[in-house]
Amino acid sequence: MASTAAPHKLSADDLRGDRGRRRTEALMRLLFLGAATLSVVITALIILAIVGEAWNFISQVDLAALWSGGWFPRRGMFDIPTILAGTLVVAGIGMLVAVPLGLGAAIYLAEYASRRARALLKPILEVLAAVPSIVLGYFALQWISPNIMQTVCLGGSAVFNMGAAGLAVGVLVTPLIASVAEDAMYAVPGSLREASYGLGARKRTTSLRIVVPAAVSGIVAALIIGFSRAIGETMIVAIAAGGTGGSLFSLDPCGQGQTMTAAMTALATGSDQVRGSDLAYPSLFFVGLLLFASTLVLNVISERFVRSVRLKY
Amino acid sequence: MTDITATSNVSAEIVRARISGRRMDIGGRIFEGLLLLALALSLAVLLTLLVDVVSRGIGVYAERGIDVITAPLSSDPAKAGIGQGLFGSIALMLIVAATAFPIGIGAAIYLEEYARDTTFTRFVTANIRNLAGVPSIVYGLLGLAVFVVALRAITGPESQGRSILAGGLTLAILVLPIVIITTSEALRAVPSGIREAAYGVGATRWQTVRSHVIPYAAPGILTGTILSMARAFGETAPLIMVGGAVSFLNTGDRGLVETLQGKYTTVPTSIFQWVQEPRREFIELSAAGIIALLVTILLVNGLAIILRNRYARKW
Which of residues 108-137 of A touch B (CB under 8 A)? Predict the structure, then answer.
C-alpha cells in the first residue's frame, strides 16, 4: 500500500507553533523589553531634571556668590569651596578610619581566618553593613561627639562637629570596603599562594607580596567605591556635622561644617517657599549635579578596575 | 667525609629550628595581630552602638510598653510614638513592592534571558550598575523634581505633592537597580542545561523562563528583593527631600486615594525629627525608635540569610 498523499515538505512554519503561542511570546518579550528600557529612561530623567534646574541656577546666579567665603543660600551666598572642603574633610576622616579597618578585616578574612571563623564573621560584617545611616548619625551625635571628639580635640569641640560625622562615615564605609576587597582577594587562585609557600615564603609575605598585588585592582575598586559612598553619605552629616543654617569655610574637624549632602537636606527641610533668595531651590539641584557627577566618575573608574580583575582570572 | 656529615647535621638542625620555631616569625605574628585588631575594632563599634542605643531606649519601653510603637507623632515626648511612622513606612514598602519588583524583575529577565549582547544591552547594564552607586539623596532630588513638583496633580494637590505616593515612587526608583542586579545574578546562576532541556522538548522562550528558570532562581530573587526592602525601610535622606519629615500629622478617616495623596511620616524620618531635639526625653525616644528600626531590619536581613542558606543549591 503506497501512500497516496503527496510527501509533505517540512518547513519553518511547522515548527513555529500556533498563533496564540507566538502572540504570548511576543507580548512577554515586549513587556520585559519595556521594563529594561524604563531603567534607562529613569537615568535620563535624573540627569534631565537635575541638569535643567542646575542650569537655571548657573544662568541666574551672580558668579561672585560662588566664591563668597560661606554657604548661606538664604542670604544668596553659595560658596562652592565651603561645601567641597566640608565634604572632603568628612570623607577624608572617614577613609582614615575605614581603609585600615576595612582592608585589615578583608586580609584577615581572606587569608588567615579558618573556614568556620569566616562563616561566622562574614554575616556579622553584613549586619554592620545593613545598619541604616540614620542610626550611625544618632551614634555620631550622641556617642562619638561627647566620648571621642571631646577627648581628641584639645581646644574642646563643638557639639556638632565634622570629626564625629567623619568617624561615623568611616564606620559606615568599613564593611563595604572589607567586603569588596575580600571578594577580590578570595578570588586570587590558590596556586599562587602555594607557589609562594613552595618558595619558602611566610604567610605574611604571601599575603602582602603575592595576594594583595594580585588583587590590587579589586582593592583599589573597593577604596574608590568606599570614597564614593563617603562623599554621598547624607544622614550622618545632616545630624552630626552641624551647619543646618549655613556655614563659613572651615577645615577644622573639631568645629561644625557643611558638606554637599548636608547643604541639600538643610535646604529641603526648610520651609517650602524658601525665603530670601529664589535661587535656593535651583541651588539644590546644582549641588546635586556636583555630587552626582563626582560619584558617577568614581563609579565608572572603579568599574574599570573591577573588570580588569575579572579578565585576569 | 665525617666533616661533611657533621656540617649537614648542624645545618639540618638550623633549618628545622627555623621552620618549626614559633617565635621566629615575630613580624608575622604582629601582622596577624593587627589584622585581628582591625576586625575586632569594627565589631566593637557595632557592639558599642547596640549597647548605647539599648541602654538609652529600653527605659522608654519599660515605662510605656507597646504605646511607643502605636502612639502618633506629638510635640510631647511622653506621648509621641512611631505609630504613624510605622503606617507610613509600611505603605511605602507596599508601593515599592507593587512597582519596583515587577519592573526590576522584568528588566532582569529581559537582560539575562532575551537580550543578545548588543551595544544597547551593554549600555543598559552599565547604566544600571552606575545607578546602584548613585547616592540616595540624588534620588531624593529626582523625586522632588518629578513626583513632587512636575506630577503634583497626580501625587497629591492637597499635600503639595509631599505624599505617600511620591515618597513610595521615589524609593521604588532607588531600589530598582538593586532589584535588577540581584535578580540578574540569581538568573545567571541557573545552569544553561536547564534551558536547553526545555528548548529540546519544544518549549518557547517564555515557557522556559516561566516554568524552569524562574522556579530555580526564585530563592535568589526572593532574597534580593527582601534585602532591597530592608534597605528601603531604613532610607531617610531621599524622604527628607520629598517631604516625608513632618513634625505633626493629622489623620482622620480618609479613603485610599486621599491616604495615598496625603502627607505622611516614616519610622526613620520620625527618628530624624527627634534626634535633632536637644531635650533628653526626645533623645531617649529616638533611641527607642532606633531599637524598633534595627529589630525590623535585622529580622528581615536574618530572614533573607536563612532563606539563602536553606535554598542554596549546588549544581
Answer: 108-109, 112, 121, 123-128, 130-137
